[in-house]
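Researcher: Checking consistency across runs. Here is Large ribosomal subunit protein uL23m again:
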Amino acid sequence: MASQSIARKAPRLGKKQIFMPNFTLTLLRTPQLPPTFASFIVPLNLNKLDLRDYLWNAYGIPVRGVRSYIQMQKIRQDKANAKRPSPRRWFRPRSIKKMMVEMEQPFVWPEEPENFDLWDKSTFDAAQKDREETESSFRPDYREKPASDRGSIAEQAKALLRGEEKWKPSLNDWEDDGDAVEVEQNVKI
């Protein structure tokens, strides 16, 4: 009888041992859930028992229950990272599998840092903005959108109408090279 009571207290575990996993688990920050719950993005072929065994064997976390669902992605008109856009070619991105784990002990996220200088976030943000602008120039509807300098041209026009600036024709900026010279002189017509 004593061996049965000990077996009941230990968590039920599978016999599948995972030493060096070849998959990636992404722990999601979910402030709306209580601290005893954790949410993960997992590969599509991972099941509830695998996740429970992994958390117990790798981190020693006893799990009360696991809930899983597969989130289907929206249909798009083009592949996200395509070098050349191809409109009217429908594509559905791969589905995402999420699992929510109920733990016996609470887990509290560390606070987000206020200063991101150690990670050089300003350079990352500038590169990402430049990348988005470059990608948008390859889209089929790029020519239908107004140009980026259109706002400054409108401001200059308003200043001219109010009389704050004077109109200067650009033809006067040309240099005078002297008399016009015929380029082709020996042409018979």
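Researcher: Does this match what you'd expect to see?
Model: One thing to look at in this run: Residues 121-136 form the longest helix (16 residues).
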